Amino acid sequence: MTPLEIFDYINNIKDIQGITLTGGEPMDQAEALVELVYLIKSQTQLTIFTYTGYTLEKIIRWKNPFQLELIMASDILCDGPYLRNFADRELLWRGSSNQRIFVFSSELKDQTKMINNPSQVEISFGRDKVVLMGIPSEELLSEIKEVFKEPNCVSRHP
């Protein structure tokens, strides 16, 4: 798909506040993503949240103009690789404590207060599936799995 086709698809989704750019590594696809992000920024009010396994310092050192543009166009950036030894399910928007959150958008500066609060999980129920956004605790995950073992459980959710 071209960036314009992806934009058209995103633009037709109702009730979203933003998009998240994540793996495959966004910085390895920065040229195409910059085009997409500029379409989104110029024609919508959606926020852009970019995850990268690279550190911000490393990206700046590389001086790749597309990567730098992608960072500048992002409202929020999470940098650094996920490291299992530093895994922390209580962190908001990141999986391990070595990862950092940068809020670049002045409209979202209030969000920085939430960064050190315990993580949140968004749960959406469909006719035949449950979608979890975020990193659920083992306890929550077990409870959800247990609920869906019950017969006819899915039919209780529209």
Overall average residue pLDDT: 84
Q: Give the CATH architecture of the largest domain.
A: 3-Layer(aba) Sandwich
Question: SSE order, as H and E?
Answer: HEHEHHEEEEH
The gross shape turns out to be: globular
CATH class of the largest domain: Alpha Beta
Structural class: alpha/beta
Protein architecture, described:
The chain has 158 residues and is α/β, with parallel strands linked by helices. The protein folds into 2 domains: 3-114, Rossmann fold, CATH 3.40.50; 122-156, no CATH class. Helix content is 31%, strand content 16%. The chain has 5 helices and 6 strands. The strands form 2 sheets. The chain has a 4-stranded mixed beta sheet, with helices on one face. It has a two-stranded antiparallel sheet with strand order 5-6. The longest helix is centred in the first third of the chain and has 14 residues, at 30-43. The relative contact order is 0.10.
Which tags fit this structure?
5 helices, two-stranded antiparallel sheet, Rossmann fold, disordered C terminus, alpha/beta, 158 residues, four-stranded mixed sheet
Task: Give a quick summary of the entry.
This protein has 158 residues and is α/β, with parallel strands linked by helices.
